[in-house]
Amino acid sequence: MGSIALRNVSKVFGAHTVIPAIDLDISDGEFVVFVGPSGCGKSTLLRLIAGLEDVSGGKILIDGKDATELAPAKRRLSMVFQSYALYPHMSVRSNIAFPLKMAGEDQASIDRKVADAARVLNLTDYLDRKPRQLSGGQRQRVAIGRAIVRQPVAFLFDEPLSNLDAALRVNMRLEISQLHQQLKTTMVYVTHDQVEAMTMADKIVVLNKGNVEQVGTPLELYRRPDNLFVAGFIGSPKMNFITGEIARGHGAHTIGVRPEHIDLSTSAGAWRGTVGVAEHLGSDTFLHVAVDGVGTLTARVGGDFPVRHGDQVYLSPQEGRVHRFNDEGSAIR
Amino acid sequence: MATLHTRSAARAMMAPSVVLLLAWMVVPLAMTIYFSFLRYNLLMPGMEEWVGFDNYRYFLTDPAFFQAIFNTLAIVLGVLLITVLGGIGLALLLDQPMFGQGIVRILVIAPFLIMPTVAALVWKNMFMNPVNGLFAYLARSVGLPPFDFLNNAPLLSIILIVAWQWLPFATLILLTALQSLDEEQKEAAQMDGAGAWSRFTYLTLPHLSRAITVVILIHTIFLLSVFAEILVTTNGGPGTQSTNLTFLVYAQALLQFDVGGASAGGIIAVILANIVAFFLMRMIGKTLEA
């Protein structure tokens, strides 16, 4: 019901190529996250799917049918915007009912669907308020409510959580995931936050400068990054990259080791270094260690590892957890 | 202004301007009220005497008075109708991306920068003149007899001239309001299946309501006292067909030299303006609050 396919889709603004020819398949019911640094074209890609921008070349298939030339409303997609884009002079009820009203449904079925959506999203008590009387999270839910009443073939989310504070963001992340379990509708979600991508996605599409760097499940991307960009982008804190003599010893131009895959010892190990900064999170401690002849590496250790600024430590990468990259940045397997 | 001290300091600082403003308003108003109870004719200096409400009685029973009230309201409503509807239309057009947008916008604003007497004379002599005017030329070129606007439809002509002058202002305010409409809201409405007309009625118009209110308010204030356009085109005539309240007061004072009667007229104009303001505020106060 809700598959989306991009065939050779490109987008050019004047002389500036934002997206050079992308192929992508999103299958029915999947939760796909487009992730990448700002300016990588992920929002543009979403707007192309929504029909808010015209493609410069290629085809967009929705549900197997060519939708490249269809108007946004005819694609049966719903979108949740970064600013929520609620209609400020309408009550929550009218906001949610708006797409149904535009579709010309009769009042009884509009009322029923709005009540259903409000119940799912815990908005029943707020139906008669105006958007400006709601908190950020509630506004977000109204925007989602407006998207679900139409029963679209797919939902599009354009960085929906970036205007919320950290605690609420974690909450809404969970709510959106639960909503996806409940509705089983295809969702396409754009974010620059790799944590959101990792926690919510069935499939992550990593974009960089308009190119698809890698497509895969969160754990695939984490375990087997195709190149330096994906390796550096996925995972927090960032993967450590080491070039030079040590990398050549592993038969690569660059090697990458995640902070959580470094063993620390105060007595012996592969590399010796001095602790620069220790970030204590309670459960974990992130150590920024200045290693002789390598540079600063980040390592994750348990919360009770007894080191302080200036201490000497030894680091050793865990066997089989070292990622190797050639001089073009691609993974060597 | 949190503490008692800062509050009293603030009051002391405001006092000079408040006093000045009060003096500026209270003195002329008091003098006008005083004159309105005198028989005060410039042709008979030194013969002023107290006549009570006689001036008011004469002014209110003058047949020209009712004509003037009607004309005043007709000018206000007529011009408002043209400027608000035309302003919305022009603002929507100017909001579209097009070639030479900057120059077109300046041209649209231009009439507002022309002083009223000049604008009215341009209209009178270059457009509406039945012999030399552009409209007469156009009428003749399709074989119709030229229409003498200022003699046959004086009130309508004045409404047209004044509307032409005030249209740019309305357009400007509505255009800026239009540009502040959130792009994502428009896109959301588009995704929700709203066509161009629905987007206009459900999204644009409510968004513009505050700007429209401002336009109505400011226009009404200025349109109640239209004067220069009448003076240089029709002189209130033919008869009193294009005389509004302002012009009637002027005629009373400076054509009939009756300062007492004119003062009474002025006070009546003030009272009428306040009645209009009262209804206006009630009607649109809600919009401004929201």
Please provide a brief summary of the model.
Chain B: Residues 69-280 form the ABC transmembrane type-1 domain. Chain B: Belongs to the binding-protein-dependent transport system permease family. The complex is a heterodimer of chains A (333) and B (290). Chain A is of the alpha+beta class.
What do these coordinates show?
The complex is a heterodimer of chains A (333) and B (290). By secondary structure, chain A is α+β, with helices and mostly antiparallel strands. Chain A contains 9 helices and 18 strands. Chain A folds into 2 domains: 4-227, P-loop containing nucleotide triphosphate hydrolases (Rossmann fold, 3-Layer(aba) Sandwich), CATH 3.40.50; 237-325, OB fold (Dihydrolipoamide Acetyltransferase, E2P), CATH 2.40.50.140. In chain A, the strands form 4 sheets. Chain A has a 6-stranded mixed sheet with strand order 6-7-8-3-9-10, with helices on both faces. A 5-stranded antiparallel sheet of chain A has the order 13-17-14-15-16, with no helix packed on it. In chain A, helix 5 links the parallel strand 7 and strand 8 (186-191). Chain A starts with a strand and ends in an 8-residue tail after the last strand. The mean pLDDT of chain A is 89. Chain B is mainly alpha-helical and 290 residues long. Chain B has one domain (54-289): MetI-like (MetI-like fold). Chain B has 13 helices and 2 strands, in the order H-E-E-H-H-H-H-H-H-H-H-H-H-H-H. Chain B has a two-stranded antiparallel sheet with strand order 1-2. At the A-B interface, strand 6 and helix 2 of A face helix 9 and helix 10 of B.
